[in-house]
Amino acid sequence: MINVVGLGYIGLPTALMFAAHGVEVVGTDYNRELVETLKAGRTTFEEDGLDELFAEAVKKGIRFSHEYQSTDMYIVSVPTPYDKASKKVDASFVVGAVKNVMEVCPKGAVIVIESTISPGTIDRHVRSVVEAQGFTIGEDVHLVHAPERIIPGNMVYELKHNSRTIGADSREVGERVKALYASFCEGEIVVTDIRTAEMTKVVENTFRDINIAFANELAKICRSDNMDVYEIIRIANKHPRVNILSPGPGVGGHCISVDPWFLVGDYPGLSNIILAARKINDSMPDFVLERIHDIMKENGIDDVGRVGLYGLTYKENVDDTRESPTLQMLDSMERHLTGGKIKVYDPYVTRDIVPNQYHDLDSFLEAVDMVVLLVGHDEIKEQIEKLQGKVILDTRHICFLEGVYRL
Ligand code: SAJ
């Protein structure tokens, strides 16, 4: 039996996938409300194919509990934020989960950590905790790092088809965990050591952050000298070895905007391009605010209350708002005392999380003269003509109506 600890965006689909493929699973989370929701037969976030997977896992007998189980296999998928001051990984949730596991696990249990951690986290934070409790690593307990790679919006498909990495101290344990993941994972599963697995995961997200930063920097350069960045990227990408990503209002989510900081925190002085990329991406929400200001002036709009932000999530067709560029912008406006009146709408965010939030596209559009497209949800792409007659700032290159402004 596997005890999956932490039933968030990664833990839940992973637990469901194992269960749907015939593995006995108990999912544990300390959030009782979340556990009760799952027990009542409801998923806790929206994701393509998740409800079907949930139904299949329930049929195969998955159980949910707020208590740790006594078993020989644990998968820990708890959050690993970064410490805003030191920029280093905050491993406290991982350490807490491992401590709890050690209170109930039998001798020889394997603890797989799926949470993203910076290279050396297991050495520095986890091993010492395990040893301090009197456990001998490699005998009483085995540590493994198996980072995930699934992308919100396409999680269920990617969970099954992506290649994955297993880092373990011993080849034998690595192969055992590989065989377990192979119950559902059809991609290649590479077995390596723990530190390599830790570093690889962080490097992957850092690679993407740097590439997005390059696109964003190009957008700024082109704006400053009146060039069309989208046309330039489109043409440059016809080169067989060039593949520039898309500029946007910033980088949100809990991975790409977080993981590169681990390297900056641990290797200051050596992580120059990584730091520069982080700064460029973090500067984009303010860049959009400046664009809004200029466009308002150009069009004689002097009341920010007539401006509407479309999209609150960190990217299209998901309901996740963590670190979203829109929230970063609203935060920045508040700091400059210009927030409050601007209107906001997102079809995926049904709860009120910011002031002046609308829950219906038509009434949102009626209330504003200018629309800033911050997220390219299918909802707006499919009815883009509704924006006809508005002043439009499109930060996602999804609107081709006449007169549209871009980044
Ligand atoms: N973005 C752009 N321009 C682009 C691509 C993305 O501005 O061309 C923005 C998005 O709008 C969003 C942010 O970047 O705000 C990140 O979105 P994303 O779709 O690139 O990635 P995430 O954060 O949803 O998921 C990433 C993925 N990592 C990589 O592609 C290397 C995923 O595979 C990881 O599993 C996930 O992080 C994670 O959990 O680590």
Question: Would you kindly provide a written description of the structure presented here, covering whatever features stand out?
Answer:
It is a single chain. This protein has 407 residues and is of the alpha/beta class. Helix content is 41%, strand content 13%. It has an 8-stranded mixed sheet with strand order 3-2-1-4-5-6-7-8, with helices on both faces. α7 (171-181) links the parallel β7 (164-168) and β8. The protein binds ligand SAJ.
Helices and strands in order:
Blueprint: E1 2-5, H1 11-20, E2 25-28, H2 32-39, H3 50-59, E3 63-65, E4 73-76, H4 92-104, E5 109-113, H5 121-132, E6 141-145, H6 155-161, E7 164-168, H7 171-181, E8 189-192, H8 194-224, H9 229-236, H10 259-266, H11 272-298, E9 307-310, H12 325-335, E10 343-345, E11 357-358, H13 361-366, E12 370-373, H14 378-381, E13 391-394, E14 405-406
Parallel strand pairs: 1-2, 1-4, 2-3, 4-5, 5-6, 7-8, 9-10, 9-12, 10-11, 12-13, 13-14
Antiparallel strand pairs: 6-7
Helix pairs in contact: 1-3, 4-5, 8-10, 8-11, 10-11, 11-12
The structure holds ligand SAJ.
Ligand SAJ binds at residues 116, 148-152, 204-205, 208, 212, 245-246, 248, 251-253, 255-256, 314-315.
